[in-house]
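Quarterly update from the structural biology core.
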Amino acid sequence: MRSRELSFSFVVATAFLIVVAAGGDLRADQHWEKPDEGFGQPISEEDLELWDIAIETPTGDNLPPGEGTVADGEEVYAERCQSCHGPEAQGGEDYMYGTMVGGIGTMTENPRVLTPGSMYPHAPILFDYVRRAMPLDNPHSLTPDQVYAVSAYIYHLNGLIDEDYVMNAETITAIEMPNRDAFIEDDRPDTANERCMEDCDPIGTVADADAAEGSDTEAGDEPDAGDAVEGEEVGGGGTGGQVEMGTEEDEENGEDGGN
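Predicted structure, tokenized:
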């Protein structure tokens, strides 16, 4: 009886292993088989328009069609913005943010009061930020007309435009911001790196250190650390050339020139 039970168990186990092995081969074949179709789909220009929302300043290039008034902006603000920024954009301890009004002329003082009126060098920056990030709980939900309107309302509260002002892509760039001349233009050249995956040339300070070492020593010679003098840059190390501080006289006197 025991022999029959063992034989039956052996048959069952063998059959199970065959099924598992066959299933494993099937899954492996399916996994490595390259599908005829790819994933995703080409992106159309219409799809890109939803993401291409950056506004160039000070020109205002890429501002969308539409317009809004100060009065319309007051209504939009009360409905979509006031719960976080407070009445008339004054903020305060009872609200999530501080004031968005005032501070003009404080950029050279301490403390500075940072608001759209006091800080921004170009008026379209406010439109770009509001459309991109506000309201906090539902960004990108405002229409261009609503963004123009609420931007006009905030700039009016800052005393930069009149109550009857109509803001659109043309008029917003004409607003003269008080802080427009306080920024320094970044004239550093653009740089581009080429991708390298194999046999790449050394970069950065390591290459500079190797070059400096090769110019001072012959092939096969090791540089003598004692040849360095105070303040002389010595090549080596991934963080660039190191500076040897102190002199032999300092060491004899027990002084630490590096500290």
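DSSP finds nine helices and four strands in the chain.
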